[in-house]
Structures are given as C-alpha cells and as structure tokens.
Amino acid sequence: MTPAPVDTRVLAVANQKGGVGKTTTTVNLATALAACGKRVLIVDMDPQGNASTGLGIAPEKRSQGVYQVLVEDLALEEAETPTLVPGMDIVPSGVELSGAELELIALDRREYRMKHAVDQARGRYDFVLIDCPPALGLLTLNALVAADAVLVPLQAEFYALEGLSHLMRTIERVQRGLNPRLTLQGVVLTMFDRRNNLCEMVAADVRGHLGERVYQTVIPRNVRVSEAPSHGKPVLLYDLRCAGSQAYVRLAREILQREDGLAGRAAMAS
Q1: What span, in angstroms and rounded, lies between the C-alpha atoms of 168 and 188?
Q2: CA 197 to CA 220: how far, in whole Å?
Q3: According to the 3-state scheme, what is the secondary structure of 60-120?
Q4: Nearest 10 degrees: Cα torsion 99, 104, 26, 161
Q5: pLDDT (mean) for 183-191
Q6: pLDDT at residue 158, as a whole number
Q7: For residue 96, what are the contacts with CB-CB under 8 A and spacing of at least 6?
Q8: Cβ-based neighbours of 264, under 8 Å, separated by 6 or more
Q9: How far apart are the two ends of the chain, measured CA to CA in Å?
Q10: Which pLDDT value is given to residue 5?
C-alpha cells in the first residue's frame, strides 16, 4: 500500500561560519527525528561531503547526488540513497560538487534549481534537512530558496552574534527577492560548555536578541559526538546514552512541539 502524502517541512541548516556544528546537527537531528517516527531526507549541499561520510556513504556510492540533481537535472528520487537509520535517506555529495558554483552561473533559473528538485520530495518525507556549505554562495542560496525555514547552529563564542546578523540580513534579502515564505525556524546553541562563563554570557545575549526563536535545548561539547563520524554513524547509533545523543533527542522533540504549535495556529487561522 502506498503511504499517504504528508506535509513536508524543508529546513536549510545554515551558518556562513565554519566549524559551528552544521553537519553534526543535520545528521543527528535528522536521526532523532527519524527515531520519532518521521520520514527524513538529508540533502548534502556541502562539497566536503561530510554528512555523506558521517552516514557511511562510500565515495563509490555517490555517483548520483546533489551535483547531478543541480547541474544535470537528475530527478531527486533517483539520487536518494538509504542510510543505516530506518526511515532516513540522503542525497549525497561528491567531489564534483566543488565546481558546481561556477557551472550554475551559466544555467537558467540558477537560484531555483534545488527548489525544483526538493519540491519532488514534498509529500514523501516529513522533513527535508539541507546541509549548507559554510559560505553564502550559489549553493547556499539554492538551499535558502528551496527551504521553508532556516535552522541556525550557533557556537557560543564571542563573535556569534556578528555572524548571525550577517545571516539574518541574507535571509531577509532572500525573502524579499526569491523566497517570500522563508522564515527563521530557530537557533540552536552548539558546542556548549557550562563550565565556561563566556558560553553562558553569549547564550544570554543571543536569547536577549532573539527570544523564543532560540531553542531551550543546547548541544554540549561531547567527545562521543566528535568520534561518531569516523565510524560512519550518527552519534545516536554510536552511543545513544551519551550527553550529545540525548541533547539531539531533546532538540527533535522541541522542534516537533513547535511544529505542532504552528500547525495548530494555522488551522485556527483558517
């Protein structure tokens, strides 16, 4: 029996600063959502392909991936690859994606190519998480145009708010010119060390600026989270009981609660 269509939520996991936990958040949040019974697709838009590596997708299994979807018009469904996680697939990234920025420039509707592809996934997945590269180029722009909302992993460090303000301005420009439905899904604080007073100060500052858009769940610094990708597994499969795994489970629950609240308000408004 064919599964009934679902309302699909497309989230771009973005921050132009590298090393803040975008890929780690994408992979482990997606795994936690799948563990909650959701159908999840990861789109690995980062030419480094770390999400694909972290899920154990060998290079020889990436011949059909994001590059072929963006540049060669391959149907998204043909590039979807199963992962170790039940209910979770990935569109992998290969080395050829590093040249896609230049090739996209010459293509028609270059900013909308991922949107056209991702729209094919609507109704088949509950969530599509797009792992963006650490830059605001055409790949990230394609992700923002395709997305319903942006999820921002933010490391609790001194320059956090400065980087966030740049990203917020980018989101506003995309809203005005290319994707008026795009919103800020939320900000999740990553690599959090409660022993560090600076982390607490930054968290208070970010919450003071953005209020409820900052998730209550914070992702701690955790060695098991760092070890998991080298084993080709999400941390929830590598060590479910560690602090990092439990934080991602709580984040998934918090996101699902917010989504239920949004759906309820939308139903009341209609």
Answers
A1: 15
A2: 14
A3: HHCCCCHHHHHHHCCCHHHHCEECCCCCEEEECCCHHHHHHHHHHHCCCCHHHHHHHHHHH
A4: 100
A5: 93
A6: 73
A7: 67
A8: none
A9: 31
A10: 63
